[in-house]
User: Fold this.
Amino acid sequence: MDKSSVTAPRNAGSLLILGLGSGIVAGLVEGVGLLFFQRINWERWGPMMHVSWEIVWISPISDAILFLSLALICIVVFRFAPRLPAVRVLVFLLTFLTVYDWLTLTNRLYLRACLLLAFGVAVAFARWCGKREGVFLQFWKTTTPWMVAAWVLAFAGIQGGKWLQERNALAHLPPATPGAPNVLVIVVDTLRADHVSSYGYSRPTNPNFDRLAQQGVRFENAIAPCSWSLPSHVSLLTGLYQFEHGVGSVQPEPWLGWGNKGMGGFPTLGETLEHRGYRTGAFSANRTYFSRDLGFGRGFVHFEDYFQSPSDAFVRTLYGREFARIYLKRSEHSLVKRTLRKLGVTSLLDQDAEGSGSYGGAFGVRKRADVVNQEVTEWIDRDRQRPFFAFLNYFDVHDPYGGPRDYSKTSWPQQSEVDAYDNGVKYVDDYIGRLMEELSRRGLENNTLVVITSDHGESLGQHHLRTHGKALYWELIHVPLVIWYPGHIPAGVTVTTPVTNAAIPATIMDLLGAGAQSPFPPSSLSALWQTGGVPHWPDPLSELAHNAISDKEDQIARTLVPTASTGAMKSLVTPQWQLITHETRDDQLYDWVLDQAESNNFVHTPEGQATTDNLKSRLADMMMPRK
Ligand SMILES: [Zn+2]
Assistant:
């Protein structure tokens, strides 16, 4: 044994300081690296787990806890085996974990290569340190307080910066019109209309939605502008179709932030309401496609997406992702899952679609409707001086289906995928009811305009498809839409004219009496519930950009039906027909009124061909810039 290791301070304190200091360093680099490589790897946005600036102070906590735990284990082991080279073993372990961490966060190297390289570096570094234990431990003794200070600075800078930005934005809002109503827009992600009871579904999935529909206006044939979240949410906030806003797929996050470029740079509902003195907030449970990272922050003073709970924060750190990848995909009877359940850490076990679980990576954890409700009510209570505009995305209907595990079972059988999907629908409806109760308890229900809709439907096996975003069939674009504003709009009205829910911003501004100040296309739906209605209404358009990424299911499906993996698609819905066009495949024409399952394609009949030609020229006219 050489001289320096004999004289090295081997007390527990030194090992703990080493664990803490190196954990913070590993975590700070990890946090910045996760942000950096998320941008570099943006083309794999869909299967990726996402982060925002908060990760820079969250990752060090996770790594410091992990490293400190290892230091503690080492301390205990070395109590019983004092002849083991304590510092060297701990340095080996921490170096291995740090190097592995930094290599894997690139998301571009093979895991085995990272493991091997980390092992090699750890062996060499531990050997090198073994000869200089005293100096090495002294280095961490001096450095660790600085690392703690760096963490405090990161925490204060990021959280304080957010707080200041929000306060500053609120301070610069113009005064609101006295008595201006609050506006609440609820998007139930992935909710197809035919699974909503007031749309004729046989199961009582939506008692709360139905009650609001009876007190307001329900659109029997509302059509989503796209069959997946990102373009649809842009339309729901800008009032524009995809060919107008241009956001058909994920776009790289600008290095200096979105500025005014998010959502194609077009005026948004949030921004317009801010100009009218509204306090604006978005509460998203769809953290893949409705987040600040994708440019949706503009027009929202307050935005809640990631990090709603310690579990969610943990799975976004690198070792959290590793834990989720290795342990959370195991069966419900696995030791880890049973232990976590016994410990009450159930939120970690509630799988989300976010993350790369389906591609061999980690599953994220769900943000449930109860958390979204908690976030929005806390935010409402923060300031009651101004009217609010809250935009909610509930993600519980989205796959994996079923609602939370502890959610009490519904009255229908619990066997099929459809049964599970309906559980999610019922669960969200419960929370829509609870949110309305919260508003009522605060005396806000008489002065709040509520709009409930979805960003797209879902294919539950129809047309050889699962989930959404691959085609534009009826089940994928037909969504519920209710507008509720008692005393200002009639109760119990059902509008059967097909409408696009991209008309929501224009309709809200119209109901607020904005008149010519509304920057949205002049398509307020209010004309449809006024007596007499209107004889002609623009046919709703849906668009789906070419999506080159195709999974196994899609590869089978696209041999049977045209999907977006072989070309861009468009759909036009008239009061009788749905035309679906495809960049490279045949057109399709369905009589959606008589054949909602769309099993009978009319395109090759003489009448169908004439209708198709007529609708295609109407579609071409529509795609011209609006006057
Ligand atoms: Zn969606």
